[in-house]
Design a protein that fits this description.
Elements: H1 3-52, H2 57-60, H3 74-81, H4 87-118, H5 124-133, H6 143-152, H7 160-163, H8 172-182, H9 187-195, H10 200-211, H11 213-228, H12 232-237, H13 246-251, H14 262-294
Helix pairs in contact: 3-14, 4-8, 4-11, 8-14, 11-14
Length: about 300
């Protein structure tokens, strides 16, 4: 091959590489534009709510602009004390129910998951199938039977119907998530511990649980979010305003006679999502690791 032919081939190859690089850059740019636009569409309701929390009531639905003409900071002060009970009480009620529910879910579901994943007992497969079937039963189907049960127990108008079931491993999703994670741990750890004389509970407490923090953090975060923002459960079981949780309190800003307080409601809505945002921000690395290792991708 002559020098001229070699130079031509090299030049053609260089042009091909440059063209491929330009196509890759254009494709990357289009992907980023698409993702940015999609993200803006997804967070638009949140941006609108933040904007509405700083607007007077007459501007919230009267202007399409996201930037308030005047910043009405009084919505936050008025919203905190606008109802017959201060929002301090509602936040404390939500915190009590949520913290106890998270503790109950993590402890009870990890025990159940450990039994299904690492122990052998009669009817294990049958019980596991029954547990999985509960995932397909909508909550609304069992709402009335549960209400009648708690009514006969005298638990209605207390926090017990919202907290006690969490300590009885009633969340099949968390059990399944932890089972998937526990199965990833080597069986040799259990066998070595049994040779050293450890009981099943000691193996769970000393070996399985410390290695399962990502899965437990994932369950804790989901449990925190679902309990904090739960509206139907407190609506059914709580009757006294002073016992209301934050979602029920936000509903009280709306009135059927047209005297709704939208500005304070949106201001309190912004404050109500801050605990969820902070909780997720602190434990986001653990939740990603837990979901990845449990196979729930």
């Amino acid at each position: 091959m002559t020098d001229t032919a070699i130079s031509t081939t090299a030049l053609t190859a260089k042009q091909y590489r440059e063209a491929r690089t330009r196509r890759a850059k254009r494709a990357g740019l289009l992907k980023h534009v698409f993702l940015i636009l999609t993200s803006l569409i997804m967070i638009y309701p949140l941006i609108w709510m933040v904007s509405a929390s700083f607007k007077p009531d007459n501007q919230i639905f009267g202007s399409l602009s996201l930037w308030p003409a005047t910043f009405d900071w009084d919505n936050y002060g008025q919203g905190w004390t606008a109802l017959s009970v201060s929002f301090t009480r509602f936040f404390l009620n939500s915190t009590l129910v949520t913290v106890l529910s998270v503790i109950g879910n993590v402890i009870s579901c990890s025990f159940a998951a450990y039994a299904f994943a690492r122990l052998e007992f009669t009817g294990k497969n049958m019980w596991f199938a029954l547990m999985m079937m509960t995932l397909m039963v909508p909550y609304h189907v069992v709402l009335i039977p549960q209400y009648l049960l708690f009514l006969n127990l005298g638990w209605v108008n207390t926090y017990l119907p919202l907290i006690v079931p969490k300590f009885l491993a009633g969340e099949a999703f968390f059990i399944f998530l932890m089972i998937q994670f526990f199965r990833q741990l080597p069986r040799e750890l259990d066998e070595a511990a049994m040779i050293d004389g450890c009981s099943p509970f000691k193996i769970y407490w000393a070996i399985i649980m410390p290695l399962s923090l990502p899965a437990m953090a994932t369950a804790a975060i989901f449990s925190f979010i679902w309990t904090w923002e739960d509206f139907l459960g407190p609506l059914v079981y709580l009757n006294k305003v002073e016992d209301y949780t934050v979602p029920l309190a936000l509903r009280m800003f709306l009135s059927q006679d047209g005297a709704s307080q939208y500005g304070p409601m949106f201001a309190m809505s912004i404050l109500s999502i801050l605990p969820i945002f902070l909780f997720f921000l602190i434990f986001q690395r653990l939740i990603i690791r837990g979901i990845a290792m449990s196979g729930l991708k």
